Each structure stands twice: as structure tokens, then as C-alpha cells.
Amino acid sequence: MLKKWFGRFFGTATLPSLYCPLCDSQPTAFLPLSAYYLEKWQQHGFPYAAAGEMTSLDTYSCPVCGASDRERLYALWIKQQIAEKTFSEGAKLIHFAPETCLSKQIRDLNFFDYASADLMMTEADHQIDITDMPFTNEQFDFFICSHVLEHVESDDAAISELYRILKKGGRGILMAPIVVGLEKTLEDITITDEAERWRLFGQDDHLRIYAHDDYVNKIKKQGFLVDQLDQNHFGASVFESLGLKPTSILYIVTKK
């Protein structure tokens, strides 16, 4: 499975015109974001529909496996790390709020000691609150936590817990909805009205949307080192192949 997941194009100088690293497919086009969100944003007057740092409105999902734009970038980076041997086989990985496609592909690799975790998903290996986890200190080598922090009352507590359970030198993919050009994070955990949440945060179960600098500083405050891997890191042609917005950034955190 590991050899199959790497695909025939990984490791070459150039990727095909369009490419999904999860299913190793070459779609003729990626699919746009669901009209449901666009209609909700218009209905409630959400002003940042096109300003998401990563979410691409026009090339959001793979028509073959359904992987989102951000999942495609995660998969490419993980493949690169395995190829460069920065991950050891059997490394302990915990995946929070696991995306269906990415979770299945990583689990099928049989490379990581993999477990999933979520508060509400009954199919997850662990049903836990990310702000108060039952895991021991320094239990994991790697975590994936994508678009979870905007849902919890205390994102500081969640980040602190992620730092606690990660081994020294361990790394994580830590992502959240960031608005390009937003000067200050918008946050109000007291708002319970669904329409108002749609208007302010772009989703009825979100409690905040982040400004870039606030987000990075919040992570650093808990002790993490933060690498921001952008188009300059991966290359413009790779971003185009994966259907990513030029503003996309992959946030990799490391425990000192």
C-alpha cells in the first residue's frame, strides 16, 4: 500500500497538470466548494467568502476521491516526509476530527501507529475532548489537527494539550480557518445564534475566524515552533497541480 500511495508522479521534477496525491489520480478538473456554503454566506452576509487563506472556491475537492484542497496538501507533505525519512516507521500518529479520505489512506499505509480522535464521531478510535485529553505526556510523535480550533471554547487549552501529548522533537499539522487581510481574530464564544455565527464566522458551529499573525502568535505562545510552508516552499507549479490557492499556507508545528 505504501508504494501504491506514493504514485507514479511523486518524486519527479514536475507533477501532471492536475493531480490528487491521495488517490494518485489526474482529474480533468477539481470540483468547486459545495453551493450550500456559498448560499449560506450570501444569505447571512458573511463578508469573507473569497478571502480564506486556503479554501479554494473553484477547485475545492477531488472528483475521484473527494479529498479537499487542504487534504491534498497534507498528503503531499506527509509523502515527502516519509520519502526523506523524517518519520520513522511505526511513529505514533493521532489524527483529530479525521477527514474520511485522508484518514483511510493514512491508515491503509500501515506505516504509522495510527489512531483517530474526536468528541462526537462514534467511529473515531477515541471519543475525547481535545481541551482535556486522557493521553499521557509526550505520547505521540505526530498529530494532524485540521480545522478543530475554531470549534472549541478554549483554543488556548486545546493547543496546550497538543503540546503536552507530543514528544520532544515531534511535529504536527495544525490548521484553522484564516482570513487573508484580517487584522485581528474575530471571536465570541457567547454567541449561540446560528444566523449570527454564519454572518461572523462563516459556519454555524464556529466560534472564531483567525487573523494570520494572531494565529501564529497564539501557537508560539504555547511553546511550539511554527514553520509556514507556502507556495515558495512547494513551488507554484505544485500548487497549480493540486488546485491550491496561491495564498495557501501549511502550518507545521514542532515541540522544542
Describe what is shown at a glance:
The chain is of the alpha/beta class. It has helices spanning 2-6, 35-44, 69-83, 100-109, 155-165, 194-201, 212-221, 231-234, 236-242; strands spanning 92-96, 113-118, 126-127, 140-146, 166-175, 186-187, 208-209, 224-229, 250-255. It is globular and about 45 Å long.
Any chance you could write out the topology, listing elements then pairs?
Elements: H1 2-6, H2 35-44, H3 69-83, E1 92-96, H4 100-109, E2 113-118, E3 126-127, E4 140-146, H5 155-165, E5 166-175, E6 186-187, H6 194-201, E7 208-209, H7 212-221, E8 224-229, H8 231-234, H9 236-242, E9 250-255
Parallel strand pairs: 1-2, 1-4, 2-3, 4-5
Antiparallel strand pairs: 5-9, 6-7, 8-9
Model description:
The protein is of the alpha/beta class and 256 residues long. The strands form two sheets. A seven-stranded mixed beta sheet has the order 3-2-1-4-5-9-8, sandwiched between helices. A two-stranded antiparallel sheet has the order 6-7. The model has no long low-confidence stretch (mean pLDDT 95). The relative contact order is 0.16. The two termini are 33 Å apart. It has one domain (2-9, 30-255): Rossmann fold (3-Layer(aba) Sandwich), CATH 3.40.50.150. It is 31% helix and 18% strand.
